[in-house]
Amino acid sequence: MTTTRTENGATSRLAAHSLTLAYDDRTVVHELDLAVPDGCVTVIVGPNACGKSTTLRALGRLLKPAGGSVLLDGTELSRIPTRTIAQSVGLLPQTPVAPEAITVSDLVARGRQPHQRWWQQWSDEDERAVTEAMERTDVTALGDRPVDELSGGQRQRVWIAMALAQDTDLLLLDEPTTYLDIAHQVEVLDLVRRLAAPAADGTRGRTVVTVLHDLNQAARYADHLVAMKEGRIVAEGRPGDVVTAGLVREVFGLEAVVVPDPVTGSPLVVPGAPWAPAPAGPTG
Amino acid sequence: MSADTAAPVRTPVRPAGYRVVRVGKRGRFLVHRRAGLVAAALTVVLAAVCVAYLCVGESFVAPAEAVRVVLGQPSPDELVVGTLRLPRMVVGLLVGTAFGIAGALIQTVARNPLASPDIIGISQGASALTVGAMTFGLTSYTVLPYLSVVGGVAAAGLVYAFAWRGGLHATRFVLIGIGFAIALRSVTTLFLTKGDYLVAQQAQIWMTGSLNGRGWDEAAPIGWALLVLLPAVLWAARAQRTVSMDDDTATALGVRLGRVRLGLVALGVVLASVATGTAGPVDFVALLAPQIARRMTRTAQIPLLCSALLGAVIVVFADLLARRLFSPTELPVGVLTAAVGAPYLIWLIIRGHGGRAGGNA
Fold it and tell me: Which one of B18, B20, B249 makes the best mutation probe of the A interface by having the most chain A beta carbons within 10 Å?
C-alpha cells in the first residue's frame, strides 16, 4: 500500500493523476492532478459547468476516466472491486432517490450494504453504526417516519446518516446544501465539520470531499480549498491563502472585495462590481 | 460500576418494521413483519382456494374427500379430483407463482408498475414464435412450449439491447418494450391470417392463456424450472433492496448495478417465458400480483414471496371461475384475468404514476 503525500506533507489515500473526464466526445476535465488530504474537509468550488461535480463523481467511481486514473491507497479504482471501494469510500449523490414509502431507519440501514452478506443481513456492528449515524445527524426521533413526509433539511440529514452508516474513512458529498434554506445549509456544513474533527481519543476524523456552490461557505468550512475553472484546477490550498480578489476575478469573472469574515476570520467575498448602489438622490 | 460506563443510554436502532431472525450460529436475516403476516395469510387463502378448486365442478366433492385424495389416501373421488382437477390446479399454481415472481423482478428493475412481461413484449415474443410455428404446421405440444420460451427470451433480449445506452435506462426499457409488443403482436396477426382456419382458432385459444387440458406433463417442466431457479430467486429477494435505490446511490453502496439488473431481468424473463410456454400468456397476472402484494405489505420494495403467492391465488381462483361461470362451456383463464386486470391497468395510468424507484404506484 503506497500513500501519496500532498504538497504540504499531509497523507492522502485518495488521489487523481492526470485525470481526464468526458461525456461522449465532450471533454469536461483536463489532466487534473489532485491529492485529497486525509482527515480534512476538502471543498471544490468553481463556476457552473467547471467540472467540479464531474470530478467528484470520478473520485467516487461513478464516472470512468477517459484518461489518467483515480487512486485509492495507490491502486487504481477500476482494479478494486466496487464493494471493497464501498467499504472505504462513501458517496452521497446530488439528488438521491429513495424507494417510495421507505422509513428513515430502513433507508439509513441500507448504508450497511457493503458490510453485509446474504446470510448476515444484520450484525451488532450494523446496529451500532446505524444507531450512531442517526444520533450524529439527529434523526433518531424520525426513525419510523416515511422519508417522503420529511422536510428538505430533515431528508438531507437522513441521507447523510445513510452515508455515515456505511462507516467509511472517506466521504464524498455532491452539493449537500442544494435546495436547503440558509439555516439548514449551516446545519449540514457544521455537521460536515464535526465529521472531520479528530475524536476525543485523538484518532483522525473522516476525510470529506464536497462540492459547494457558495464560495463564502467554502472558504468558511474548508481545510483545503480547490478552485476549478473549465475543467482545470486554478488554485488549491488553505482558504486564507487561496481566496483573493484576483482569484475571484480569474475563476468567476467577478470584481470583488475580500475581507475577513467577522465571525471566523476566514476570507469573505463581497461582490463589488458590476452593480453598485447609485449615489444618493432620485434617478431617472 | 465505574463512572466511565455512564454514557447516555442508547436505544439501538433497527430498520423500522423489520425483525432480525437468527438461523444457526451466523445466519441473521431481516424479515419484514407485515410482509411475513401477509405471506402467512395468503398461504391460508391459497390453501382454501385450492380446496375449493378441487371440490367444485360438474360433480361436487366434499372438502374432506378432496384433501384425502391430495394426501394419497384411497377415495371414491380419486378419478374426478386426482386425475382431472388436481394436475390442472397444480399447473395453475406453478404458472401463477412464476408470473408473480417474474412481474415483481421486472417491475423492480424498470422501477415502473407497467413493466410486466405481458406489456413489454415478452409474452408477445412467445406468441409470435409459437403461432408462427403452428401456422407452418408444427403443432406438437411437446415442442411448442420450448419455442415459446425461446421467443420470450429473444424478445426480451432485443428490448434490453435497444434500451441499453451505456447503462439501462428504466423508462426507455418500458417504452421500447411496449413498442416491441405492438410490433410482435402484428407479426402474430399476420401469421394468424395467413394460416389455416383451424390452426388459427387453436392458436387464438393458446394466445388467450388457458389451462384447459393441462396436466402432469405440463406441470413437470415448470415445476423443475422453479425448483432449479429457487437459489436465484432467493438471491433476487435480497438484491431487490439496493436496485430500488437510484443508480448513483446503489453504485456508491458497492452494488454492481449492471450485472445485478441483468441477473434480475434474466430471471424474470425466463420465469415469464416458461409460464407462457405452459399456459399461454395469461394476461395481467404478472402486472397485478406484485402491485397488490406491495400495497398489502407496505414495503419499500415489491415483496417477492407475497407476489408469488398472490400470483398463484389469482390464477387458481380465476381458473375456477373460468371452468364454472358459463358451465358447461369453459372459458380460457386469460379471459378472466384480463377482465379484472384491464380496468386495474387503466386505473394505474389514470392515477398517473409513471415510475419512481421501487416500482411504485
Answer: B249
